[in-house]
Amino acid sequence: xxxxxxxxxxxxxxxxxxxxxxxxxxxxxxxxxxxxxxxxxxxxxxxxxxxxxxxxxxxxxxxxxxxxxxxxxxxxxxxxxxxxxxxxxxxxxxxxxxxxxxxxxxxxxxxxxxxxxxxxxxxxxxxxxxxxxxxxxxxxxxxxxxxxxxxxxxxxxxxxxxxxxxxxxxxxxxxxxxxxxxxxxxxxxxxxxxxxxxxxxxxxxxxxxxxxxxxxxxxxxxxxxxxxxxxxxxxxxxxxxxxxxxxxxxxxxxxxxxxxxxxxxxxxxxxxxxxxxxxxxxxxxxxxxxxxxxxxxxxxxxxxxxxxxxxxxxxxxxxxxxxxxxxxxxxxxxxxxxxxxxxxxxxxxxxx
Length: 352
Known about the structure:
single chain; about 350 residues; alpha/beta; Rossmann fold; 2 domains; 8-stranded mixed sheet; 4-stranded antiparallel sheet
């Protein structure tokens, strides 16, 4: 991927302490994100995909710098370099006050639009309050800007006088997108934006995000657990497992030539009709390990159909490029060499 870098995440680590006992002493920690690195280029959509609990949402919240407000004991290390017009700034250590100048540039659309919108405020009140607080437009232009934002997301002006409870799920998500766009951001983080919606409206919201990206020149980080969702709108895809990125590549490359067993499992779990076969396959077998006590070596090895002992249980593979070129990275000892055939189930052979 060529183009100007907007965001450069370097070795990001996020840890949450675990307390227990009568005195509620610290008894451990959850390493929700373990040393991940990636870049976002201006105008692209990067899909961040993985099972629930793998750390995707934590990455998004770390970028927008709201984790400390949610849990003041959280430990964050690494760098989140935002290429602002005034220069490169590391967002990771910034306080709430220090983050304020950059807050309009990075906005987030949350998974549940009903809980992220104030139920007591009309759409007009919610948008106007935001525009006035950040002084985005003159006072006499607030009403016109509110109408413009609704038109941008395909809602009629009469929606300005409605409360969130009066909308459908898809309409509420459009209001949430309009609110995020009110500050004219450069980066939009969409955290599972369609997972709470009916299948019939998911494509509509995804198409809207893609159209807005092209129309406004947005850069989008799309967080999802559904591989079909990220394929629909993403230029590149990064696959996360238990706090780590295990594979990243251009979307077409990743879907046609997956190299990590976990990626292959996610792809085979996508329902599809194949003559003479069941419409769904097993996908990834078993449940993810506890992040409080992750496995040694490769974190995926207890569930991996091609794991080899003692290599996979003792050595943690690095994210590395192989025969597909430097833009395709995978963290697996067998990503770029064929494992023993006896350990490769039929389901994975089909995926390759």
